[in-house]
Write a structure and sequence with these properties.
By secondary structure, the protein is α/β, with parallel strands linked by helices. It contains 14 helices and eight strands. Helix 7 runs antiparallel to helix 10.
Length: 402
């Protein structure tokens, strides 16, 4: 095996010296911050006399802490604070809570790597040069990842009364999950909201046995139970269970049927040789300059294709005016309101990030991973096109609802 040359040895020594120097500076900085936190709690610095001090120091203790720059042994100051009843209590740092052995940045790095598709073995191998094998055991990684479940449970139970949604996209994604000792593909119902400022936000996810009325009704009822008011507009495909649940739960919410899903329905009811011509006539409806032009094109489609392909016409008429709801809103938003594409893109990211998982061991694991991808920034949700006109769009929807 070739031995390192002199320049390589010098480079390694410099790198080691720099690493040690950096860790020493990090340790000094952390100890300074902790000392300042304690001084603020006591009302005076170390060695300072004060008649209004809130307690007194009593030594320090050593604690090994894993930071983003590697392991460090910190000297944690100790103190006792005076209580109103004349007793004292031990001071606890808010910056470095009791028993904490890793900084939040380390936990965030581990979670980010896990959500990006890494398992325990890969995480230890990737982070060992920085954090060391001894400081990042398999059980430590498992505990960090387990925090996701706690955070996900808190997210599920959050108060939604402060949310005022302009749009709610609803659709499902199928994932392989082990249920009753067998891996099956089951739907995860996803609700993606758009706030008044145009920002998209993940509202809910629920794993169900099928995309039925009962399944969608349960998801919508859960949102309402946590205080979510009826959105101004709901965008959905033609799933009968979803549409029925929407109309029953939120009768004032306007519904926009996804034009892309409807075209797939029309193709399924028409012979292949007619698809090109039918698509041109369908595009005249959904890509019109305004609502009036779209309705004329709609009527023309019905007249032309009723004798040629009545099944396709019946499919078009099944959607009715809900296919053209977006024409009531500002033109800048038509692109985002006429399809479920904003949610489809999110679901596509879900599929891309989970395809290496094989299957999930239970339903909670699947939901936690999907939520974590969004919550920890692996998938970034941006504002929709035309968000500057969102206030105008909501006024239009609520005025018509009234």
């Amino acid at each position: 095996m070739p031995q390192p040359t002199t320049p390589e040895l010098v480079s390694q020594a410099c790198s080691l010296d720099l690493t040690l120097l950096l860790r020493a500076r990090v340790r000094e900085a952390l100890e300074t911050v902790l000392d300042e936190e304690l001084a603020a709690a006591l009302g005076c610095a170390a060695g300072e006399r004060s008649a209004t001090r809130a307690g007194y120091r009593h030594g320090a203790l050593a604690r090994d802490v894993l930071t983003q720059h590697g392991p460090a042994t910190l000297s944690i100051p100790r103190a006792r604070l005076f209580a109103e009843d004349g007793t004292t209590r031990e001071w606890r740092s808010g910056l470095l809570p009791r028993y904490q052995r890793r900084t939040r940045e380390v936990d965030a790095a581990v979670l980010g790597a896990y959500l990006a598709g890494g398992n325990t073995r890969r995480l230890r191998k990737a982070l060992a040069p920085l954090l060391g094998d001894a400081n990042l055991s398999r059980s430590a990684i498992s505990r960090i990842v387990a925090r996701l479940r706690t955070l996900f449970t808190a997210w599920q139970g959050r108060d939604l009364s402060g949310e005022n949604l302009a749009v709610l996209y609803l659709d499902g994604i199928y994932l392989p999950v082990r249920l009753a000792r067998r891996v099956v593909r089951v739907p995860v119902l996803v609700a993606l909201g758009v706030r008044e400022d145009g920002q998209k936000v993940l509202m809910a996810m629920q794993l169900v046995s099928g995309e039925t009325t009962a399944g969608w009704a349960a998801l919508i009822a859960e949102l309402a139970r946590h205080g979510l008011a009826a959105p101004a507009l709901a965008v959905a495909d033609g799933n009968p269970g979803l549409l029925r649940a929407l109309r029953e739960a939120w009768p004032t919410t306007k519904i926009q049927r996804c034009i892309r899903h409807k075209w797939e329905n029309l193709k399924a009811h028409a012979p292949k040789h007619a698809h090109g011509e039918m698509h041109r006539d369908y595009s005249a409806i959904v890509m019109a300059a305004d609502g009036a032009t779209a309705r004329r094109a709609y009527a023309a489609f019905v007249r032309k294709w009723t004798p040629l392909c009545a099944a396709a016409v019946r499919s078009l008429e099944e959607a009715g005016d809900e296919l053209l709801t977006y024409y009531r809103f500002p033109r800048s938003q038509w692109k985002c309101l006429r399809t479920t594409n904003p949610l489809e893109r999110l679901n596509e990211e879900f599929r891309r990030r989970t395809k290496t998982q094989g299957s999930f061991r239970d339903e909670t694991s699947a939901l936690v991973l999907l939520w974590g991808l969004v919550a920890f920034g692996q998938i970034v949700l941006r504002k929709i096109d035309g968000w500057k006109d969102m206030t105008q769009a909501m006024k239009i929807a609520w005025k018509e609802a009234a």
